[in-house]
Structures are given as structure tokens and as C-alpha cells.
Amino acid sequence: MSYNNILSEVTNGIATITINRPKKLNALNKETIQELHQAFDAADKDPNTKLIILTGSGEKAFVAGADISEFADFNVGQGQELAAKGQELLFDFVANLGTPVIAAINGFALGGGLELAMAAHFRIASDNAKMGLPETSLGVIPGYGGTQRLPQLIGKGRAMELVMTAGMINAETALNYGLVNHVTTLDDLMPFAEKLAGKIMRNSSVAIRSAIKAINANYEVGVNGFDVEIKAFGACFGTEDFTEGTTAFLEKRKADFPGK
Ligand code: COA
């Protein structure tokens, strides 16, 4: 499929989705959000894709936020719809995807950009990256899940400060806060992401899909994550991957998971 604002390619089981509006620092306009939804959906349904890496094009930005030019004249109803639609189409969609998503943050990840990175299953960053939720400096608040996912990842006090100051933190601080798992040079970012992807892809994709669901259940209001885990754990015993994984261990060989 061809897109106007993103690039998507699959190599060796890894789908790399690149937001590609470098002149606008990869800001997320409506069309880009729609295209990202399609690309994530297609990658998740593609049997040849085992993992997704999300990054931005150019050396300056991952994503510098939602496209401010598109919503500057919105009213209350339109504002609410923008957040609701965006969360449903992209941010919650990515967070709940069964295929693992790694955000490779290659520069500014601001506003909707950081919210998108936080919707990914985990994040790595290059040492030039800068992250923040600057919405209060524009007279709004984060609307793509940022007020929920940032405190989940870095704690309430730090999230409060970052949102209230509309400030930015560098990659090193993001690493200290646990917002990103690893920091590399810009040149090493994608090779490092692919190396991590390789380690993940050796394991059962069926079990990983279940694990994502169980871990996410911890953050769902009214859902008992322990119960979700028990059911998901039990379901693994009926999979071909489980048979192969345990048999391979007992036969002292490497598992070759069918992904079923
Ligand atoms: N929405 C729309 N356009 C954006 C954008 C956004 N979130 N972020 C950057 N751009 C555009 C700029 O308007 C500019 O376009 P132009 O060349 O047509 O004027 C282009 O991207 C380059 O950005 P510029 O501001 O000139 O780069 P800079 O290096 O001076 O500053 C930033 C970089 C990231 C600090 C600055 O672009 C910025 O503050 N962006 C907005 C961040 C934000 O508030 N995001 C949250 C939105 S809810």
C-alpha cells in the first residue's frame, strides 16, 4: 500500500513504519493518523510481520506533536472529537496491538509524538532526543492519552511537573525516569532496535501477544489483571507454540515456533 505521509516496509519479519513529514517535523495531521492506523493494522494482520518498529524520518524529529495548524480554530465539540477519534484510531489501537511495537525516538517527541511513543509497548531513544508534553503552553492539555500514560510510566509527581512546566527532558533524563529503556547514538538507533527485535522474534509470537494483553490489563479500570493472566496462561497450553517450546527444551534444542 502506498501512503502520502508515512513509509512502511517489511524486512526479515520486522515492519518499519516511518512518519515522513520531515519539513513539518513529522507532525501528526489527520491523514497521517489515518495512514498510521492502516499501516499498523496491515502489519498486525500480515503473517510475515513479527514486530513493528516506529520511527520518524530525518535527524531532527520523531514527531513534534499533533499538527497545530489543523485544530487551532476548533470548538469544544470538535476538540473532544479530535481526542476521541485519535485515541481510538491510533493511540489505544497501538497500545492494544498483539504485535510488539517498539518506538525508536530519533529526535523531538513532543505532545502527540510523545503520546504515540508512549502508546508503543516500549521505547528506545537516540541521544539527541527531546521529550515533553507542551500542550499547556498552547492552552490545552494532552488529549491522546498523555495524562494517563505519562504518570503510568514515570510516576505522578514527575508527570505533573512535566505537563505543568510544558518542559522538555533529554534522553538521559528520560532513561533515568524509565520513559525509555535504552539510549543509543542516532546512528545506532535503528540497528539497536533491530537487534532487540531479533531477540523478541525468537520467542513465541502467540505467547507474546497474550503477555501484552495481560500486562495491559493492569492499567484497565475495572479489570482484574490477575484473572486475565490466569486465563491467558491457561490458553497457552492449547497452542502449538507451547508444545514446540516445551518439547524443544526437553530435547535440548532451540525452539522453532510455528506462531500458532
Ligand atoms: N504542528 C504543526 N507544525 C509544526 C509542529 C506542530 N506540532 N511542529 C513543528 N511544525 C512545523 C513548524 O511550523 C515549521 O513549519 P514551517 O517551516 O512551515 O514554518 C516546521 O515544522 C519546522 O519547525 P520549527 O519550529 O521551525 O523548528 P525549530 O527547530 O525552530 O523548533 C520545535 C522545533 C519542536 C521546538 C518547534 O517546532 C515546536 O515547538 N513545535 C511545536 C511543539 C508542540 O507544541 N507540540 C504539541 C502540539 S499539541
Automatic annotation (TrEMBL):
GO biological process: fatty acid beta-oxidation
Recorded family membership: Belongs to the enoyl-CoA hydratase/isomerase family.
Key words of the record: Lyase
Record's protein name: Enoyl-CoA hydratase
Keyword Methyltransferase: no
Keyword field contains Lyase: yes
A GO MF label: hydro-lyase activity
